Each structure stands twice: as structure tokens, then as C-alpha cells.
Amino acid sequence: MTSKNLILIRHAKSSWDSFVQDIERPLAQRGIDDITLVAKESIKFLPATLILFSSPAKRARETASIFAKTILHPLDRIFFSADLYTFDENKLEKFIKSINKDYDNVILFGHNDAITNFVNKFGTVIIANVPTSGLVWLQFETDSWEKLDTGKTIKIMFPKNLKQKE
Questions:
Q1: Backbone angles phi, psi at 14, to 5 degrees
Q2: Superfamily of domain 3-165
Q3: Strand 51-54 to strand 105-110: parallel, antiparallel, or no bridges (unpaired)?
């Protein structure tokens, strides 16, 4: 039995300064700083081969791009799906279960409440709230994403915890 690794990252802190549609909100400077910090720290443990999926919302696209640049992942290898612009964990679960079984290591950039509710449903650690730029790694003992069942929470990394170390 092989395992599947799913790293969920909530988009970085967005800016509310401009009057734009929700899907067009850009990142705030704090968000840029936080996701850069998380990405730099994650280089220490990320699997060698990765596939990245992201919501098409501007704040998620920017988060995925900064993360990818920091870990030296090609930007043209980030796949965007309108199905990830969701706040509903059932829609998020449906997307994850549709991922090609050939992919063993997936990073997914998305939104709350979908991420927090998903990691609480499938992980082994209850998290009150996955903050912006928060990373949660779940591992599943399965050979296919569509057979997803309870996994194991492998790693939790939030910007505020990394800042306390500095």
C-alpha cells in the first residue's frame, strides 16, 4: 500500500483596502511576508516531487506563486481549478477525491472554512482555525485519492509559531 501526502495551505492574508470583488482581492504585505516564511521553513521537509493546485482567486494564486518561487517549483506547474474557489469542505473533498491516482504528493492552496473543516474531518488533530498562510500536512494510507478515508496529521505550521522562533 502506498501513501498519499496532501499539504493544504490557506491563502495568505489578503488586503481589504481596495473595493474589488472577493475573487480579485490581492495579498496584503503581511500575507506576502507570512507565506514566504512558511515556504522557506517547508523546504526542510517537502517531498521531492510535488503537484500544486490552487484556487483561481487572486489571493490564492499569489500565495501559490510566492510559495512555488520560494521552493523553486516551476510556476507553469501550478494548476488552477475553479472548483477550489470554495469555502465548503464537501466541495473541497470532491476535488481531492478526483485527483489523478498517479500523484502521490499534492499541495493545495485554498480557502476557509473548507480547509479547517477538511483537516478536522480527515486528520488526527483538531484545529480550531487554520490561519492565513497556515499549512497542514495529512497523510493517507491508500493508493487512490478517490478512496480517501481518515488520514494522519503529519505536520502543522502556522506563521505565528514561526515568528516566535525568530
A1: -100, 165
A2: Phosphoglycerate mutase-like (3.40.50.1240)
A3: parallel
pLDDT score recorded for residue 2:
85
User: What is the per-residue pLDDT for 18?
Assistant: 80
Cβ neighbours, 10 Å, residue 91: 16
CB 106 within 8 A of CB 9: no
User: Mean pLDDT, to the nearest integer, of 90-114?
Assistant: 98
Domain spans of the chain? Answer: 3-165
Whether 23 shows a pLDDT value over 80: the answer reads: yes
Strand order in the sheet with 135-141: 78-80, 51-54, 105-110, 3-10, 135-141, 152-157
Q: What is the reported pTM?
A: 0.96
